[in-house]
Amino acid sequence: MSRNLSGLASVAALTGVLALSMPARAEDSYKIGYITDLSGPLAGSYTPTWEGFELYIKALNDRGGIGGKKVDAVIDDDGLKADRAVAHAKKQAERDNVLGIFGLSLSSTQAPVYAEMRKMGVPVVSTFSGIADALPPAQPFSYSTGVVFEIAGDAIGELIQKIKPGAKVVGMSFDSVGGRAALAFNKKSVLAHGGTWDEVIFPVTTSDFTPFAQAAAQKAPEIVVGHYGSGQNLGVIPALRRSGYAGPYVVASYGVTEDTMRQAAERSGDGSNIYYVTRYSSSTDKDPSVAEVAAAQKKYGTSKPFSSMHVTGWALGKFAEAALKACGWPCTREKLDKAMQSLNVPMGGLTGGAIEMTATDHYGPSYWKLYVWNANSNAMEPKSDWLRKTATGYK
Amino acid sequence: MVRATANLRTSYLEANEILKRPYQRLLVASIFVCLVALPAASSGYFLHLINQCFLAGIGALGLSILTGYCGQISLGHAAFMAIGGFTAVILKAHLGLSFLVVLPASAIAGAFAGCIVGLPSLRFRGVYLAISTLAMHYSIIYLATAYQARFGSSASAGIPIDDPRIGPITLSGETSWYYFLLIFLSAVTFGCFNLVRTRAGRAWMAIRDRYVAAEALAINLTRYKLLAFMVSATLASVSGCLMAFNANVVTVEKYTLDLAIIYVAIIIVGGMGSILGTLMGAAFITLLPYAIDTLFDFLPRNWRFGSTLFGVQTGAVGLCIILFLLFEPKGLAELWRRIETYFARWPFRYRPLDAVRR
Amino acid sequence: MEFITTALILTCTYALLAAGIVILYKASRVVNFAHGEVAIVGGYVFYSSSTFAGAPSLWYGIAGALVFSIVMGAFIYLAIMRRVLGEPFYVPILITIGLAIVLKSAIIVIWHANQVAINVGVRPAVWLEGGATLSYMDLATVAVTAVFFLLLHLFLTHTRTGIQFRGTAENPLLASQRGVNVNFVLSLAWAIAAFAATLSGVLYGGRAFLSTESVTIGLAGLTAALVGGLDSLRGAVAGAFIVAISQYLTVRLIDPVLSQALPFLVLLLTLTLRPWGLFGTREELDRV
């Protein structure tokens, strides 16, 4: 009898809890959504980005919010799967009534989300990974403040000339939309500067990189560029060193944290010759804007060690605040979309210049910097100035 | 109402009735009426949840027939769904055929695949069969990944699909999907109830319980095992096709081993060998993550830290499998049966004449 | 030379995993689908206990992982598997599948799905031609595997309890009536299996990194065990070698993306041609 009762009780509880999950009443805050990978293969890169965004929103709410209204961010995990990303996007749009969706994860998960939200009229702003939807001529409701791979590949090709001009470059990436796009444009840029090119591609879920690193080392490169996230670098850098490649290795920053760099450097001997190209300042940079983010991280705490991914998320938060402010109150999705199309958000030292968007260009000019890892101080040191890239000419 | 002498049947026809007693018929009819009226009283989001339950139910019924009624352990369910999804992609997105062609085509593709995946069952039983289906799963998924890499934008990008059109009706938005799936699931359930009452159904149950005796009774094991695999794969493939249209995107990453395990969890939680149980299990497992999500809303803010919620959601399914297998191996259906008989026999505790329970 | 060492190290990793699966099958006829997850959780525990006091420390790590693996293995048996002795064959399998899910989600909840690398013993120890290096961890992998297999073999063939393993698997009821403490034997089997898994996970984490996705090595280990024969330790090594070599060759010579699916193609081939594995006993197949 008790088994019947406990069984019945659990089923009743389930039903009751579900009944409670019905949508809430009218809001008194700006509701936005954030979908990213919090538990899958690239959680090490995407989770800190979300945390940076969350830090900014917390600080913003503590300041009183926007015109007295708080900002409420709904977070969902897509585990790096496109169908889950779309399902969460639909849920956030229908149940949580979000004004816009931010974040997103791997490039491969983005196209369907952009497409579905375009149908529903919800603006989507991706950060740190972005696909070409936001580049001019931009698709409606599709924005990005992050690293769009076409431009990143190009910028990296240009910046690595400072390490060794005209070198033989081997590019490594995993098999994703962004990875392939990045390699394609990196190749173009390297060839345009007189170098030679080869590449190694591996599955997204690889964790043992020894064979791939050996394949890369055997091509006798002068520079190796890695277009992937934190965890992959953690595996690739030591594997490359163990395979006998001691030359320069460039981390293309799609979410590489300084903590990972430190661990990778520790495992690969002296940690020298590791470079880093990024759109947003490294967390070890001395700039006061970065210090502001560090202070917030200390105040509110995060589960991941402080990294440039937090800086990236923070920058997105700044952008979100500016967009919502321009939207006004009460804000709707159409108003938010319109507001985003004429934004100029100063970033201070977070990146080389302001984020500017227009009606046809939902990405704007981007600024890229080359750093080198200093194993003694466990910090990134700038090796170049901010390189400005416009978003035209990539589609 | 005392029915101490219930369950006395005087013909095979009566013994095979699905809904035996008047109250059962009344119950089913009223549930159906409620289901039809539901969209008027609920939000789009709730309907979305119910739609997911329906979709899961269609697929789960296939696995229930294979594992619950025929006793063949299969971990390849996700692969069959992948076949359905990719048939949808090939025929709709890349060849532009209409939905009314795509759905039957995915059923046929599923049947075909089921036949092939079912071949090891002629040779193996038990663990080895489970492992062969696992190997088949990965092979099919590899082919799907290769296809997605060639024809999608990359090996990990989804291929989008438009909403399906049946004649003048476009299935977009929760309400239209709800009615479509309600009709479809009802038809499939009705079909399954009947299928297990036929000769094939009885053959399956014989194979499950005593395959040696079944063979001795001239039941063609090959034929019926393959038939079970084909039916299961057909339903799974159709379910995969519908899910693809519902989500408007197809990625091979969706069809993981975890998905196959979720379906196995559904039939365990629901109760193997019971159609009603399978439907209950489908609803339970599908809604569990959302219930956990809502529960977490009540916890203090810092418990929602990072990925804890999602870890718990994933772990809950595994925990359900373990707990149900330890404490209630016959699943929710058994729970329902016990409650039903308690009320049916009250104030008696035992049935005076113990007929065979279905 | 580099090719040989990499292949050898990969073989050792898979062999340890396969050994765990074989031990369990030898003692209880249960195929453990949660083996990969136990390995990776063991690796994470090693990481946590070794970095517990700051800089990575080998001894803390070993202590933590050792205690964890033995306790975990015994716990799984005593709390869960023991209750389902005597149930139909599919019940323990499904329970291990459920366990796999629970352990994977434990990684997400406890360690926040962080990717961690075990930084103990990763300094280069041996230099090969072409600048390639082998770390202490790499050397340890081979040494530990060899020692473990030797000890295990001696245990199974020369000690009383080891011989009881086989009897318990064939007929637990009869064995217990003959005075074999079935509970002890089975908890021991699970503890050894968990230990082997943890060992493998730690060595893997030292060479690559650990994340929620790494649990797929469990399936490679299962393939290795099946190819070699589910009840043969010799087969575990042979199977591991075959899987490792074919995976490595596929990455280097054919197509890197195929390497993920390769263990299963090998598995399919084995099941078609010689289902009981290279060194397994044939009658196992007819058992349900």
Q: What does this 3D model show about the protein?
A:
The complex is a heterotrimer of chains A (395), B (358) and C (288). Chain A is α/β, with parallel strands linked by helices. Helices cover 42% and strands 18% of the residues of chain A. Chain A contains twelve helices and 15 strands. In chain A, the strands form three sheets. In chain A, strands 6, 7, 8, 9, 10, 13, 14 and 15 form an eight-stranded mixed sheet that branches. A five-stranded parallel sheet of chain A has the order 2-1-3-4-5, sandwiched between helices. In chain A, helix 11 crosses helix 12 (333-340). The longest helix of chain A has 20 residues, at 43-62. Chain A is globular. The mean pLDDT of chain A is 83. Chain B has 358 residues and is mainly alpha-helical. Chain B has helices at residues 12-15, 22-41, 44-69, 77-94, 99-117, 126-151, 174-195, 199-209, 211-216, 221-247, 257-270, 275-298, 308-327, 331-345, and strands at residues 159-160, 165-166, 169-170, 249-250. In chain B, the strands form two sheets. Chain B has a two-stranded antiparallel ribbon. In chain B, strands 2-3 form a two-stranded antiparallel ribbon. In chain B, strand 2 and strand 3 (169-170) form a beta hairpin. In chain B, helix 3 (44-69) packs antiparallel against helix 10, helix 4 (77-94) packs across helix 10 (221-247) and helix 11 packs across helix 13 (308-327). Chain B is globular and about 65 Å long. Residues 1-5 of chain B have low confidence and may be disordered. Helices cover 69% and strands 2% of the residues of chain C. Chain C contains eleven helices and two strands. Chain C has helices at residues 2-28, 35-50, 58-80, 90-110, 136-158, 160-170, 172-177, 182-207, 217-228, 233-254, 262-273; strands at 124-127, 133-135. The longest helix of chain C is centred in the first third of the chain and has 27 residues, at 2-28. The radius of gyration of chain C is 19 Å and the shape is globular. The N and C termini of chain C lie far apart (45 Å). The chains are: A alpha/beta (395), B mainly alpha (358), C mainly alpha (288). At the A-B interface, helix 1, helix 2, helix 3, helix 4 and helix 6 of A face helix 3, strand 4, helix 12, helix 13 and helix 14 of B.
